[in-house]
Design brief:
Elements: H1 2-58, E1 62-66, H2 71-80, E2 84-86, E3 89-93, E4 99-103, E5 113-117, H3 123-135, E6 143-147, H4 167-175, E7 186-191, E8 206-211, H5 214-223, E9 230-234, H6 237-243, E10 252-260, E11 263-270, E12 277-285, H7 289-300, E13 305-313, E14 333-336, H8 340-346, E15 352-355, H9 358-365
Parallel strand pairs: 1-2, 1-5, 5-6, 6-7, 7-8, 9-10, 9-12, 12-13, 13-14, 14-15
Antiparallel strand pairs: 3-4, 10-11
Helix pairs in contact: 2-9
Length: about 375
């Protein structure tokens, strides 16, 4: 009986020891749960800081890169908008002539809004610039915008006979292949494209914004001494359809032309230029033959002065020199700086006046 009593006592003692062990373990379990909550809170705080950092990076100044020919415009844009920072690209070539390009501080682009100011002023520079344009959106940037002031193949948008190649479509396809950034498709800013229907040549990977240099011209016209006598003229019906809506406050003259080989026969279709300062408006000029013939007709019909405006002064083979001859008879010839090779050649040479697109570009980047 005594042995049984001792066995029961030992059993009770073990039970009491187990209960003490459980009670002793409870604070440890509580500490574990508290530690888990603290770790979860720390993780949440870290996630919040990372999110805040991403938002801060996205709200940093837009990083604007540019090709060598557009450096002047890029600096003017940055001077106008303090929220734009200029990026640096090293434009080099290998011994075989192919591009050797390097984007400085590429790791700093992560999460930032990025833009590239391009100039496709000649076919030889398109490949190297496309190489950059295709690469920047893939550098983990928040969004990507392409500024292409002059869409160079815009006048080759249709086929009049079998065998002709519409290179405007080809260029649009090349630009439609720009990779998406984290923000989605590329926004593309183009000034006074030759035909508005060319927007439909682009695929869904690029969203074109068609801006215009005409507001810059309107400012200049308003400041002329004979502003009340200004009449707008168009060299053909196409230009009238393209720009008519900009000049609702002005009387207009519409010319028409017939090409016979290299010769252009220009006549006045409607409007009266007599005693007026006629300003011929078009999207671009190449050789300038049409503008010169149009000016002759307008002066013959009594225009007191003739000026011209084009957004894109292409002027291959220095054809701009034709307008520096006093016999050409142009009081003013306004162009924008969309074609840098022309601006560097004729800036400061009468009758040319260069209208700067920097303010218009800065505005478009903030849309």
């Amino acid at each position: 009986r005594c042995a049984g009593i001792r066995a029961v006592a030992r059993t009770k003692e073990r039970a009491r020891g187990s209960r003490r062990a459980v009670r002793g373990a409870r604070p440890s379990a509580t500490r574990t749960r508290r530690r888990e909550r603290e770790e979860m809170s720390a993780d949440a705080n870290a996630l919040g800081r990372a999110t805040s950092q991403r938002l801060t990076r996205s709200s940093m100044p837009l990083m604007l890169f540019y090709c060598t020919e557009m450096e002047q415009m890029a600096r003017e844009i940055a001077a106008i908008d303090g929220n734009i920072e200029l990026g640096e690209i090293q434009w080099r070539t290998f011994a075989d002539g192919f591009p050797n390009i390097f984007v400085n501080d590429a790791e700093q682009l992560h999460g930032r809004h990025v833009a590239f100011l391009a100039s496709f002023h000649n076919a030889s520079v398109i490949f190297q610039q496309l190489s950059v344009i295709y690469s920047l959106p893939k550098m983990f940037v928040a969004s990507f915008r392409l500024i292409l002031p002059f869409f160079p193949t815009g006048t080759f948008e249709r086929v009049d006979k079998e065998g002709e190649i519409p290179t405007a479509v080809t260029m649009a396809r090349m630009l439609s292949s720009i990779p998406h950034s984290r923000g989605g498709p590329t926004d593309m800013i183009v000034f006074d494209i030759h035909a508005l229907q060319e927007r439909f040549y682009f695929g869904d990977s690029v969203t074109p914004l068609f801006a215009s240099g005409i507001p810059l011209l309107l400012e200049r016209l308003a400041s002329l001494e004979d502003a009340a006598d200004v009449v707008i003229a168009y060299p053909d019906e196409g230009a009238c359809k393209r720009f008519h809506n900009f000049f609702a406050k002005y009387d207009e003259v519409v010319c028409t032309k017939v090409r016979e080989g290299d010769k252009r026969i220009v006549t006045i279709k409607e409007g009266k230029p007599t005693g007026k300062h006629i300003v011929i408006v078009d999207d671009l000029v190449q050789s300038g033959g049409t503008l010169i013939e149009c000016a002759k007709v307008l002066r013959r019909e009594g225009a007191s002065a003739v000026s011209a405006y084009v957004t894109h002064g292409v002027f291959p083979n220095e054809s701009w020199r034709r307008f520096t001859d006093p016999s050409a008879g142009f009081a003013n010839f306004w162009i924008t700086d969309s074609c840098p090779q022309t601006v560097s050649a004729c800036s400061g040479v009468a009758p040319f006046v260069v209208l700067k697109l920097a303010g218009s570009v800065a505005h478009a980047l903030n849309i």
